[in-house]
Each structure stands twice: as structure tokens, then as C-alpha cells.
Amino acid sequence: SVPLSFFGGIGGASKCGILVKGSNYLEALANTETVIFDKTGTLTRGTFSVTAVHPESGLDAEQLLAYAALAEYYSDHPISLSLKAACKAELDPARVSDVEEIAGHGVCASIDGKRVCAGNSRLMDRQHIAFQPCGLPGTIVHVTVDGVYAGHILIADQPKEDAKDAIADLKAGGVRKTVMLTGDAQATAEAVASEVGVDEYHAELLPADKVEWMERLLADKSPGGKVAFVGDGINDAPVLTRADIGIAMGALGSDAAIEAADIVLMDDKPSKIATAMRVSRKTLRIVK
Ligand code: ADP
Ligand code: MG
Q1: Nearest ligand (C-alpha, residue 77)
Q2: By the 8 A CB rule, do 188 and 201 touch?
Q3: pLDDT of 207-245, one tens digit each?
């Protein structure tokens, strides 16, 4: 049977906007020794803004942005949302067909009968498209039209306001290691990692690579220690499921992530993890 005060603990957490799906997760939280974070939408706001548009191959900036936004029409990725927000032209879904979203790469779709792809350098490599590296900080979305390089769009994301304090709070609360796993480029990952202060980070990962890192970190833990993963569920649902404690961002996160998670942070604030750990420890002291 579940001791009554566990309900108190779960209720107390829910008043702080932390949804705990069972008393066993409350107990696991109190023993968390490693916290792994996804980057985009978890440690960063996930709301990118377009900072530069560099068309090539005879397109103008508006045309390049419209191609990218149309290719991304059906995607929920934070990058996709920013491209659609930046595009002033009306986006007509009737122009879009045969959409293929490739996790950790980007999207391809047919627009007015032309094959348009928008994504990172890995997507370009996959299609054997050569391009000039841009060298500016930020996330780069390259665009091709019918296999010809059409330019790139630079977008910037910001760490969440409470991300740095959230990491410091976890360390102060006894978490041994904080890790950031991301599919984004090395330079962007390094900048975010040093800004928020995680102990280690790994970049340019595909969803399967994130699971591999999770396995490694699970194998590393001490007996009784728990590993938590915090993500928004976009490209990280498999790793969210594999963790001892899967924590999802509830506001920006996908429905699948909320479903798969053990704990949901309703307001997407990473600082709520340390709060949840405090609630769990208090509850355990009452129970024992
Ligand atoms: P993170 O691990 O930072 O949350 P993701 O795994 O979601 O990032 O994506 C990794 C990278 O894959 C992104 O930084 C981006 O370069 C590329 N990517 C993924 N989805 C899209 C998309 N819909 N449009 C453009 N690029 C994308
Ligand atoms: Mg993500």
C-alpha cells in the first residue's frame, strides 16, 4: 500500500506545477544522482528568432524563407515554428506534399512540384550538397531546391532565464553530475553548455545516439542512484522513456512526451526539478 503522505507529496508538487505520476517516482527523485538535459526547448527557450537570411542561386530572401517555411509546414519542431513565424508571405498548405521529416536532420517536401529540403549540415551531407560554412554563432538551416543549394537561414535561441540557477540548484541539492545531450552543432552546444554550467555535454547526436549516452550514464551510476532525463519529447522520446525518471516539459512539449514521461513540468521551468527533489525528500522523511 502507498503511505498517505505520498499523496501529500504528490499534491504538494502539483501545487508547484509539477505533475508526478506515481509515488515511486517521488522516491526515485530523492535519489537522483545524474540529471541529463535535452537542449532545445528544455535548457533553451526553444523559440528561435531568424537573425539572417542568405539566399543563393537567384532567389531573394523572401523566397528562400517561404520555401523553408512551406517545407516545415507540418513540423512541430521549435526550428520550424520560428521559420513559419518569420515568413511574411501567406503559407498555402495546398502547395505542400510528400513531406518527410528526418529526426536530427530536418525536413524535405514537394513545393509546387519542386523538392525542397531544409535542415542542418548532416542533411546536406546526406544529399551530397556542398556549401560554404557560415562561421556565425547560432543554428543554421540550409535550404536546397531540386538538389541545388539555395542558401541558409540563421536562427538564434536563448537559454531559459532560470536554466543557470536550475543547474546550480541541482548541484547544491546533491546531484553529482549534470549533462546536456543535443542534436545541434558543436559550436552552439558549447556556447549553451558553458552559459548554463552543465558538467558535460555531447553534440551532433541523433535520437539513437542520445539513447546510447543514456545507457552509458545508467551503467555509470552507483547502486540505488537514479538517472533523470529532462526533455520536450521532440526527437528525444526514446531517451525519455529509457531514463529511471523521465521528465517532460508540459507547455511546449509534445503530447507524446507528456504521455511517456513520469513527471511533467507544467510551466517548462528547469528550476522546478530541484523543487521536485526537495518535495520528494521532505515526503520521504515523513514516510520513514
Ligand atoms: P536538440 O537535441 O537540441 O533538442 P533536435 O534533436 O531536435 O535538437 O534536432 C537536432 C538538429 O537537427 C537541430 O539543431 C537542427 O539542425 C536539425 N533539425 C531537426 N529537426 C529540424 C527541422 N524540422 N527543421 C530544420 N532542422 C531540423
Ligand atoms: Mg529537442
Answers
A1: 1
A2: no
A3: 999 999 999 999 999 999 999 999 988 888 889 999 999
Separation between Cα atoms, residue 3 and residue 23, nearest integer Å: 9
Q: Please report where in the chains the cell 526515485 appears, as a residue.
A: 28
Q: Name the packing angle between helices 272-287 and 4-15 (round to 10°).
A: 160
Question: Where does 165-255 show beta strands of DSSP type E?
Answer: 177-181, 200-202, 226-231, 245-249
What does residue 47 show for φ and ψ, rounded to 5 degrees? -110, 100
| 24 CA distance to ligand 2 middle (Å) | 26
pLDDT for residue 173: 92
Environment class of 167 (CB within 10 Å of its CB; exposed 0-12, middle 13-18, buried 19+): buried
| Closest atom of ligand 1 to CA, residue 75 | 23
Same domain? 87 vs 170:
no
Same domain, 187 and 278: yes
CA 13/CA 267 separation, integer angstroms: 13
Pairwise CA distance, residues 215 & 200, whole Å:
16
Interface predicted TM-score (ipTM) of this complex, two decimals: 0.94
Q: Are residues 54 and 114 in the same domain?
A: yes
- How many domains does the chain divide into? 2
Predicted TM-score (pTM) of the model is 0.84
Q: How far apart are CA 10 and CA 23, in angstroms?
A: 7
